[in-house]
Amino acid sequence: MDHRLTLGGKLPSFSEIFTEYLSDISLEVEAIKLRNIRNDAEGVNEHLARIDSALKGIMDAKLALAENLRKSQNQN
Questions:
Q1: What pTM does this model have?
Q2: Are 3 and 17 in contact (CB under 8 A)?
Q3: For residue 1, what pLDDT is reported?
């Protein structure tokens, strides 16, 4: 998942991006539970990698939000 954050534009808002990543994490956790029942360590690791990616996406979105807010404050 790759998002660019804008304030007031047509691209998704931080809240939308956050919600999407949070949803992805929830789905991956459920998949891990199923893989764990089947003793599928490789499958669990794949899901953990996706969770890590989603968490990094949230951090990137927060950074972009902070940068956009800083730029808008500097313009005022």
A1: 0.68
A2: yes
A3: 47
